[in-house]
Design goal:
Elements: E1 8-12, E2 15-21, E3 29-42, E4 54-55, E5 58-59, E6 73-88, E7 96-104, E8 124-136, E9 139-150, E10 153-166, E11 175-184, E12 188-197, E13 200-206, E14 208-209, H1 214-217, E15 223-229
Antiparallel strand pairs: 1-3, 2-3, 3-6, 4-5, 6-7, 7-8, 8-9, 9-10, 10-11, 11-12, 12-13, 12-14, 13-15
Amino acid sequence: KAGITNFTTTNLYPAVNYHKSLNGEKSKYLSLGFMGGYVQRSIDRSKITTNSQYGPNGYNPSLPDGEIFTVSNYHYWDGSFGMSFNSPIKGSESDTYFIGLAYHHFNRPLNSFYKNPPVELNPKLVASAGVRFTTSEVSYLTIQADYSKQGEYNETIAGATYSLKIGNDYENPDYTLHLGGYLRLKDAFIPFLKLDYNPFSVGFSYDANISQLKTASQGRGGFELSVSYAGF
């Protein structure tokens, strides 16, 4: 939910993944994933303020807002798929790398309160790569990057995370603490903190604005909290 008009988006995106081992040691994998689901969006039209509602005596909420859309909510079905390859580096058991490619919104769903003309959601192509190096018996470093392109828009984000295992058993640590930083080119620097306590993970990040918008935003961005559970 965002803004004074209560613009609300609800996504339900179940995903299924299949992993195929490519060697006898089961350390090299090719993975294929599909994700698709239901999206619903709504807005409180009574809280919209437009130019049409201003007259000789100033703002008058009883005047029509001048917008031509007739419904305050809509929904659509969306679909995506992707593939990745994971492998050890030169036979190492702990140093690995991955490359991946994903294609989102391949069904070009209609994405607007306005029905005429229809507005399609452009497909999005995402290329990803990463590498993980062991730095000691209790720590490792992960470097990764994503490139996204959707219509005329493109985005590149890259960074690194240092991870520290906490506990007596380094193979199955009680906790793993992750601390890192990522850069969204020409837009934001993103410090990142995450704690793994199997089977749960809790992460926290903040987008610090570094683009030309920082004159107005004073460098302020957005917080993000993530909680995940890995079972089976």
